[in-house]
Amino acid sequence: MNKMLYILVMAGTTYLIRVLPLTLIRKKIKNRFIRSFLYYVPYVTLTVMTFPAIMDATANPIAGLVSLVVGIVLALLNVGLFPVAVSCCAVVFVLEMIL
Amino acid sequence: MTAKATTRKKLNNPFLEGVRDGLPIALGYFAVAFSLGIMAKKAGLTPFEGFLASFLTNASAGENAGFLVIREDSGLAVMALMTLVASARYFLMACSLSQRFDPKMPFYHRLLIGFDLTDEIFGAQIARPGNVCPAYTYGLFVLPLIGWSSGTALGIVTGNALPANIVSALSVALYGMFIAIVVPPAKKDKVVAGTVIVSLLLSFALSRLPVVSELSEGVRILILTVVISAGAALLFPIKEGDAHE
């Protein structure tokens, strides 16, 4: 089948998933449970996407794990988004040379 | 590093502020898109098709699944369903983000902001205090869109040309960003901190347990997000009249 059609269906479906809530939910949600649920969603989803995936992303899982710990410590010190990301990369780069 | 440095300084121009905050996202995307390009190549996509697919879709798990469907030529219905499952978490993120819009904001911004609502761009918008500022969000889009689509195209062209240790190091940039988004609010809110710790434990358990570890990563993320967030919401509902969340 035409690859372009596949690409359009993939892109269209993804766009609808994103844009329907953005356009249909026009008011502040009143329900306390839903509001609480949505408050926790980003933190949970970012956490479960990071771990244990960070250990599978690197050639050596230990390097990934150490970069996670270093990242958490630096983030606790509020050093900012970019320095944390770069430090994690550096940790993996250096550790994979040693390990 | 200075102890005083705040997580993210506000610039006078929100668009430029977005461009700045988009840089680490773009770097991480470039590395991930590169390996996605290798998947796209296996599916028989040309560099242009790969560029277009990534520019229009902006979803790592979704595109990974999508390229698999193309490779196996499984039909458009399967494509729609796979995309739905692999990217369903964006639905939740969009619900969450809808609560951060100024009700007076012109409607077309909702259509545009939805175009590139990825995990990272969502995270950056959420991390910025107050209502979503469209100019900031559009600034945020610029570099990641370029990094993501050109990375895919380049992955198709060059295959495995980047040294493995560079790919390995670059691939954690995304996670470093996630960490930097999650940790500061967890430091301020004990319930968020507890939720994050439970998420770490359950996520690890589900990825290693028999049977459940067979689930695709996208589905696992979806289930964990719904169950843990619902649990936290039941046990620790947020205070009424919390203006920003």
Shape of chain A: flat
Cα distance spanning the termini of chain B: 30 Å
Count of helical segments of chain B?
A: 12
* Number of helices in the DSSP assignment of chain A: 5
> Proportion of β residues of chain B?
under 5%
Classify the helix fraction of chain B into a percent range. over 70%
Helix content of chain A: over 70%
CA-atom Rg of chain A in angstroms: 19 Å
**H/E element sequence of chain B:** HHHHHHHHHHHH
Number of strands of chain B: 0
Largest interface: A-B, 80 and 111 residues
**Rounded mean pLDDT score of chain A:** 91
What is the domain total for the residues of chain A? 1
Oligomer: heterodimer
Number of domains of chain B: 2
* N→C terminal distance of chain A: 46 Å
Radius of gyration of chain B: 19 Å
Order of helices and strands of chain A: HHHHH
What does this structure look like?
The complex is a heterodimer of chains A (99) and B (245). Chain A has one domain (3-98). Chain A is 81% helix and 0% strand. Chain A has 5 helices and no strands. Chain A has helices at residues 3-24, 32-50, 53-57, 61-76, 81-98. The longest helix of chain A is centred in the first third of the chain and has 22 residues, at 3-24. Chain B has 245 residues and is mostly helical. Helices cover 71% and strands 0% of the residues of chain B. Chain B is built from 12 helices and no strands. Chain B has helices spanning 14-42, 47-57, 60-72, 76-86, 89-98, 108-113, 119-127, 134-158, 164-170, 173-188, 190-208, 217-235. Residues 1-7 of chain B have low confidence and may be disordered. At the A-B interface, α1, α2, α3, α4 and α5 of A face α1, α2, α3, α4 and α5 of B.
